[in-house]
Specification:
Rev_trsase/Diguanyl_cyclase; diguanylate cyclase activity; membrane; five-stranded mixed sheet
Length: 390
């Protein structure tokens, strides 16, 4: 997977790293601020521990800690408020800890007490801070480890009574500490990146699935030939309207149209020509309906238009006539001789009422169908309103 390929590289590509830092900033900053405050409390409170074990450097450690690291801690907390990358803020926190290590080493290096040889093992705490406690990016952890190690094992030679054997004993603990804490830092860093890249992949996959779902939903509710909605979409709209209606019901107008003598057209010109005829009629309907209307291929050569609201009978009749005339104006040649203009025409039936349930909706469609067949019985190429419309 992509995130494994990215982790296998020594560094993230700059664009991915910048995006990673930007997205983790808000969650990481409060944690970094809290850790900084706790580390500051821990560091300054250990002034008393230095004074207890090494009383000859009590004032030295107090002055160095509070005069150098105190102001740096305040500056670091103020820097956290700046609109810069979280990576820079992590780097600043690691830098302050490195300086704190040097300050501690300078303070400890001034003692004459042999107790310092035992106490100096505490220097390894700084290594744990710059790798595990702060959990900075790996490159910062490596750089900070180098600074801490150099500071500790330079200072160690200036300790009273420090021998080569003592240094070797200290290294026997220090080297594994450095190696193991860097391994831990590596695992923390790579795991954080892995989770981020994995989540990005999941988000991308989720987006693709949503897009495909939308496309499938559109396909499932559309007639593939004409591009109009299909019966499934009509049923869903009927359910939606009736479910949203209250006891007073919802006003609806239904127009049902059928291509006249379409069987003869198909028999004469073939199904491909018949399909093209259906497309042309559907395109004509699309130009007439509004965004609020639902134009549906009702079945075969039948089409249905669902229009919210009940308009006056004259308006419904005008709309039905516009549909009939628009199809006739296409001038699609029809094989039946003797017809006026020999063009493909449609018959239209319309009905309108207040519907309160799916059953009354179906009754309204049945009324439009009744008006349609009455129109066909009167010679076709006619639009009629159901007798219930006044």
């Amino acid at each position: 997977m992509k995130y494994i390929q990215e982790i296998s590289r020594r560094r993230l590509p700059a664009t991915i790293r910048a995006e990673y830092d930007r997205e983790r900033h808000d969650a990481r900053l409060p944690v970094l601020r809290t850790i900084t405050l706790l580390l500051a409390l821990f560091y300054f409170s250990y002034t008393a521990v230095d004074a207890w074990f090494l009383p000859d450097i009590a004032w030295r450690t107090f002055i160095l800690r509070f005069s150098i690291i105190g102001p740096l801690t305040i500056l670091l907390l103020r820097f956290y408020r700046q609109p810069v990358s979280i990576r820079l803020k992590e780097g600043a926190s690691v830098l302050v800890v490195c300086i704190a290590t040097v300050v501690w080493c300078v303070a400890i290096g001034g003692t004459a007490s042999p107790v310092v040889l035992n106490y100096f093992y505490a220097a390894l705490v700084f290594q744990m801070v710059v790798t595990i406690v702060l959990t900075p990016p790996l490159e910062y952890g490596v750089a900070a480890s180098a600074v801490v190690t150099a500071s500790v094992y330079t200072t160690i030679w200036f300790l009273p009574d420090a021998t080569t054997d003592y240094v070797l004993f200290h290294l026997a603990v220090g080297v594994p500490t450095v190696v193991l804490t860097l391994i831990a830092n590596y695992r923390f860093s790579t795991e954080a990146v892995r989770l981020y890249l994995q989540n990005k992949d999941l988000d991308r996959l989720h987006g693709q699935l949503l897009k495909q779902h939308g496309e499938l939903e559109l396909v499932s509710q559309s007639d593939p030939l004409t591009g109009l909605t299909n019966r499934r979409s009509l049923d869903a709209e009927i359910h939606r309207l009736t479910a949203a209606s209250n006891s007073t019901g919802v006003p609806v107008t239904v127009l049902l149209l059928d291509i006249d003598h379409f069987k003869e057209y198909n028999d004469r010109f073939g199904h491909l020509a018949g399909d093209e005829c259906l497309k042309l009629v559907a395109d004509a309907l699309k130009k007439l309906v509004s965004d609020d209307d639902l134009a549906c291929r009702f079945g075969g050569e039948e089409f249905l238009i669902l229009r919210p609201g009940v308009a006056p009978a004259a308006s419904i009749r005008t709309f039905a006539e516009e549909i009939r005339q628009a199809v006739e104006a296409l001038s699609i040649r029809h094989p039946l001789a003797g017809r006026d203009g020999m063009a493909v025409t449609v018959s239209v039936g319309a009905s309108a009422d207040i519907v309160t349930s799916e059953e009354t909706f179906l009754q309204l469609i049945a009324q439009a169908d009744e008006a349609l067949y009455t129109a066909k019985g009167h010679g076709r190429n006619i639009s009629l309103l159901h007798q219930s419309i006044r």
